[in-house]
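Contributing new complexes? Match this layout with iron/sulfur cluster.
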Amino acid sequence: MHNCNCENPLVPQIVEIVKIIDETPDVKTFHVRNENGVPFDVRPGQLAMVSLLPVGEGMFSVSWQEEKEHLQFAIRRVGLMTDELHSVGVGHKIGVRGPYGNGFPVEACQGKDMLFIAGGIGLAPLRSFIKYCLKHRSDYGKIQVLYGARSYADLCFKDELFDLWPKEKDTEVFTTLDRPEEGWDGHVGLIPSYLEELNPAPEGKVAVICGPPIMIKFALKSLEKMGYNDEQVITTLEMRMKCGIGKCGRCNIGSEYICLDGPVFNLAQLRKLPPEW
Amino acid sequence: MKVLNKNKLPAVFDKLAQQSELFVPLQKKEQSGFYSWKSFDQASDQLALDLLNVYLPPKQVLLPQTEKMYSFRQEEGGVAISEVYEESQARVIFGIRACDLQAINCLDQAFLTRGFVDEYYKARRDNTTIVASACYKPGANCFCSSMGVDPLEPAGADAIIRDTGSEFFIWEARTPAGEELSRQLAEYLEEKELPLPQSQAFERQVDMEGVAEKLSQVFSSPLWEELSDACQTCGICTYLCPSCYCFDIQVKNQGEAGYRFRCWDSCMYGEYTMMAGGHNPRASATERFRNRFLHKLEFFNERYGMPLCTGCGRCIIACPAGIDISKIITAAKEADWSA
Ligand SMILES: Cc1cc2nc3c(=O)[nH]c(=O)nc-3n(C[C@H](O)[C@H](O)[C@H](O)COP(=O)(O)OP(=O)(O)OC[C@H]3O[C@@H](n4cnc5c(N)ncnc54)[C@H](O)[C@@H]3O)c2cc1C
Ligand code: SF4
Ligand code: SF4
Ligand code: FES
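Output block (do not edit by hand):
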C-alpha cells in the first residue's frame, strides 16, 4: 500500500518549481520536479503534502503526473502557506511528501462511460482522472465533463476545457457560470440544475464529483433523482490534515482516515460513515 | 522464583541508568509521573511505585510532548533539509501498570500498522524495554479489568514485578529483553519462594459488552448534547490519557534555519479540524466530545480490534467538569437511544 520512496514518510523531498501557470485570479498550477524528474509516482486522485518552509505545509491533490517528468498541483490561494506560494517564482525549491491516499478506482471503471462533475478548484483532483481516461482512451466509453465556476475568470484549465478535451474522441465538455456575464454565451446556472437539464442516463455510467460541500450535496441529490445508484457515484472528501499517513488523528470520519483510506469513496461507502462529510 | 529486595532499588536503578535512559514513577512535589531517574532529587522526590495512578502517564517516553522531526536551512532559491532526527537511545520503563502498558499496545497499533510506519515512534519503541508492575490493589478510579486488561498479567511486558507486601518484589522475565535485564541485575536478584499476593476486587466496574456496536447506531442521538453539556473542552482528559496520541506538526524558524516539530494536540479544540475558509466539520463542543468518546469506545475498536480506553481512570480524576468515561459507557449501554 505504501509506496513512498523516502525512508521516513513524514520528511519531505526537495523539488524545484519548473513552471507556473496562472489559471484564475486565485489559482496557479505548479509543475515540480527534482534532478531525476518526479520525486515519486502517483496514481490519479492521490495526494501529496506540499511544504513551503518555513511557512507551512498543506495537502493537495496531484492534479497530474506528466510521465516521469514532473508533478502538477493546482493550488488556490486561501491562507498563510498558499498566499506565500503564490508569490514565489520558477526555480524556487519547495518540499513534497507522499504519495498519500487511495486514488480513483481507474481499473474498476474500465469499460464504463464516465461523467465528471466539478465545481471551482474541484476540477484539480478530477483532472488527473480525466487526463488518465484520455490517455487510455480505448479503456473507457463516452467521457462527459460538467464543470462550473462563479465567473469565466474562475474556470481552471481553460485550454483543456475549451480546446483540447472537446477535440478528443467521444468526449463532451459542458461548462456553466453561476451568473450571466458579458461575452459569455455558454450556459448560466448552478451545476446541479445544469446536470438535471442534461439528464445523462445512468446506464453503464460512473459519476465522479468534486467541489464545494454544498455543490456536492445538491449534485448527489440530482444524481439520485436521475436514477444513479450508490455504487455508481464517486466523490473525494476533504478534512483538515497534518500527517497524511493515518497517525495524527484529525482527518477521521468514523473509523476511516481520509488521508489514508480516502480521499476517494463511493456513495455506498460514504453512507456507512457517520454524517460528518 | 526470583525476588528483588526493595532496599536495593536505588542501586538497581543506578545500574540500569548506566546503559539506558530509565523512567520510573516519581512523586515530585505536587506532581507525579514517569520521570527520568537522572532527575531524581533525594531532597524533594519520592519513588512512587505504589501510587495508582501517577498523574502523568508514561506515553511521553515514546511520544514526547514535543519532538523535533527535521531541521532545514534556507538557501538561495529555496530550502534544504539538514538533519532528520532519530532517537535511538535505549530506554527502560520500570513500574508501568497494565493499563498504561495496554495504552502502549494501542499506540503500537496506531503508529506501526496500516501501511505507514511512524519512524520517530518506531525508533524509540524498538529501543524500549518494559518492566511492568502487577496490580493487586486497584485504585478507586481504576476499571481496567472492564476494558479487557488483566492487571495481574500486564500484556506486552518484558519483565514483571509483583509486590508481595513484604520487602520483596517477585521478579519474572517474560521476553529475551527481560532475560537480558535479569542478567544485568543478577547481583541483585535472589532465589526465594514467596506466596503470591492476594488480589482485591475493583470498586469501579462497567460492562463493555455490546457498547461499541450500540454506539455505532446512535451517532445522531440528542443524548450526546446531554452527555457533553458540562464539558469545557479544556483538553486535559486528552493530555493525561495514556492512549491519546493525536499530534500537530508545526515549524520553528530561527533566521536562515529552523526545524519542523510535532507536539501533542487535542481533538477537544475547535482549531483541530478547522479548514481554510472557516469550514469546520466538528465546530461544536458536542461534536468534538462525541468524536472523542466514539474514537475511544467505537472507532478504534473497529479499526484495531481494541478500545482506546484502558481504564486508567486519569480523566475521571482530572476533569474539571466531572465527566466520567465509565459513566458514559454505562449511559451508552443503558440508554434508550431511540428517543
Ligand atoms: C484531500 C485534500 C485535497 C486537497 N486538494 C487541493 C487542491 O488540489 N488544490 C487546492 O487549492 N487545495 C486543495 N486542498 C485544500 C488545501 O489543503 C488547503 O487549502 C491548504 O492547506 C490551505 O493552506 P494555507 O496554509 O494557505 O491555509 P491556512 O488557513 O493558513 O492553513 C492553516 C492550516 O490549516 C490547514 N488547512 C487549511 N485548510 C485546509 C483544508 N481544506 N484541508 C486540509 N488542511 C487545511 C493548512 O494545511 C494549515 O496547516 C485539499 C485538501 C485536502 C484535505
Ligand atoms: S477534561 Fe473534562 S472538561 Fe476538559 S475536555 Fe475533557 S471531558 Fe471536557
Ligand atoms: S480515556 Fe480516561 S480512563 Fe480511559 S485510558 Fe484515557 S485517561 Fe484512562
Ligand atoms: S492527516 Fe493525520 S491522520 Fe489523516
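Reviewers usually confirm one structural detail per submission. For this one: The two ends of chain B are 58 Å apart (CA to CA).
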